[in-house]
Amino acid sequence: MNELKVLTVCGAGVGTSTLLRMNINETIKSFNIGIPFKVENTSLTRAKGTRCDLIVTFASFEADARKLCDDVIVINNLMDKHKICLQDNPEILDILRNSSLKHSTMGRGIEQEQEFFLALGAAAQAAEKLARGQKLSRIYTV
Asked: Is CATH 3.40.50.2000 correct for 4-80?
């Protein structure tokens, strides 16, 4: 697989984009996804000549960033970090498929909305853990 290239973009490409790069590096490493990646901080001007898979920037640069890359994430507050709980169960779709209930969301079934049903199953399993007094695996992200 090719390396995933992420650009963090701010006005000068030095201060806030550097902090953002550090946060993103930490976050991607904590997920241990096994995909090679590189995160670089840069200015909007230098980003115009750089190939990337994703740009992470701030609202003031969003419109220009979207001209450079299809995938753009806008950060509202550099200091905010959110907790994400990991709940891994690759069998959840099979459990739902073998259920006697008919599962659908807005008229679409499991095959059309796999990501939705995976998230729903993960949320249900996390709620069950909490109800039993168990702890959830947490990752802090940007």
From this structure: no
